[in-house]
Amino acid sequence: MTSFLYYPGCSMDSSARAYHDSIASVCATLGVELHEIDDWNCCGASEYFSISRNRAQALVGRNLAIAEREKNGTDALVAACSMCYLNLAKTDHQLAESPQTAVRVNDALAAGGLRYDPGSVHVRHLLEVIVRDVGLDLVRERVVRPLTGLRVAPYMGCLLTRPGYDGQWSSFEHPVEFDRLIEALGAEVVDYPAKTDCCGGHMTQISPSTGFELIRRLVATADRKQAHLMATVCPMCQMNVDAFQGEMNRYFRTSYHMPILFFTQLMGLAFGAEPDALGIGSELVDARSALAHVGIEVPPAEGTAETPVAAPPKPPRGGKGPALPMPRMPAGREAAR
Known about the structure:
Blueprint: E1 2-7, H1 17-30, E2 32-36, H2 47-51, H3 53-70, E3 76-79, H4 82-97, H5 99-110, E4 122-125, H6 126-142, E5 151-155, H7 177-184, E6 188-189, H8 203-206, H9 208-224, E7 229-232, H10 235-243, H11 245-252, E8 260-262, H12 263-270, H13 288-291, H14 333-336
Parallel strand pairs: 1-2, 1-3, 3-4, 5-6, 5-7, 7-8
């Protein structure tokens, strides 16, 4: 067994429940133990750093301090969310770079009986741990259901490789590590030049036209490359491209249907796990037709619908205009919420 400290982040019990379930399945197969740190708090996402850098650093520093206190034989703190990973790694780097910042953060942490020594915790993303520590040889050994015939667009998003404090990725713009993992599962990796482009984050709420355009570029590129689906490593990326794809189609009068699954869901399938144990079927852009290319049948979820298309576009918001555009739940799911 290989053990790591683990910071799950806020989305794992809500919008990214499928990620949580598939991570548990994959780690059990690979012999990886993730020890969730005690009493962790939100990483602040992107908004809090824009509002108050000092408070955001203290917020993230608390998680680092808890991890430092709980490390037992490992200094690695693993995050599966790219935003969480970046905030943890960035804050650790900033505290190490600026003694004044470290003093200020530790003054705040002292109120809770905590202290953090910069550099004492090594923040890592789950993808890197699987590729480098677990190794692709072991991944190949665990494959019992190769995903041969499945064309996958590897989407890492804009947060994971930049700024790349540890130099762990082969490239900022076109890293190949994710490609190699997908290939180890037997799938075919399409040449996807948008693999590190931005999904828009919360732009769907701030400027819908901008957010929808960023999502359109990702989906259109994957479609043009004849991908059956996109695979991602980040809950925010998955939610944006999945949940807002219907809104994007309505806005641009397009008809894209591009499922986006977590990389651990693909790993679980290749390892022989049942789709429902991996949360497959909970996505809004139905992945059944994509997975049919590898002979995997997924029972239809109650209320599942194809991505809506070709409705009149909504005008951009402004002033006291329409409410924020939110993904439209298929019939049946809304009542179950």
